[in-house]
Backbone:
């Protein structure tokens, strides 16, 4: 039997979550009988195993020294890339910030401020350039519509290959980026 933690609340439905550690969380209504929760977990056993395998395959978090290096590199590299792609597209963010976000490489606020995670710096330059252009494109299109991707494709026709690098573990993606760029 798989171990899991139950969090009860005033909700009407159940939900499953698999944390980065592989821990399984079941969110359930307060009065729902434990046998129904168990049946729900068993019904989703395949999904849970798949999510735990993905969690186990994720690279370990960088140590403090590596984080400091990545932050310094992000601060040195990303503003110049933002400037380049802003001039290229004519789209300028209201601000640029470097964060420690772990679940997304970049974001664009409704007020057109752009944030980048320093963890992005673990990936090859073609992938970094894609994320920068992606966030700048959000200044015009605050969605992922066809027009949004058409705008990206206008300046970066190979954006899909670059985006694919972000789905690989950082070390593998970095090697793939070197192969792609011919280095």
Residues:
């Amino acid at each position: 039997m798989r171990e899991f933690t139950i969090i009860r609340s005033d909700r009407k439905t159940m939900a499953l979550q698999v944390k980065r550690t592989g821990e399984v969380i079941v969110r359930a209504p307060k009065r729902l009988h434990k046998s129904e929760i168990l049946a729900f977990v068993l019904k989703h056993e395949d999904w849970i195993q798949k999510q735990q395998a993905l969690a186990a395959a994720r690279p370990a978090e960088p140590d403090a020294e590596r984080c400091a290096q990545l932050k310094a590199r992000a601060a040195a590299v990303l503003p110049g890339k933002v400037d380049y792609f802003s001039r290229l597209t004519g789209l300028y963010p209201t601000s640029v910030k470097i964060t420690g976000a772990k679940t997304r490489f970049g974001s664009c606020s409704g007020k057109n401020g752009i944030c980048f995670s320093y963890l992005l710096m673990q990936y090859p330059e073609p992938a970094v350039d894609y994320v920068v252009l992606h966030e700048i494109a959000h200044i015009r299109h605050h969605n992922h519509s066809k027009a949004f991707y058409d705008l990206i494709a206008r300046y970066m026709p190979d954006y899909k290959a670059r985006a694919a690098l972000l789905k690989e573990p950082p070390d593998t993606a970095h090697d793939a980026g070197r192969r792609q760029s011919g280095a």
Summary: The CA atoms of residues 12 and 29 lie 6 Å apart. The chain has two domains: 5-57, 64-181. Strands lie at 5-9, 15-18, 24-29, 95-99, 106-108, 113-117.
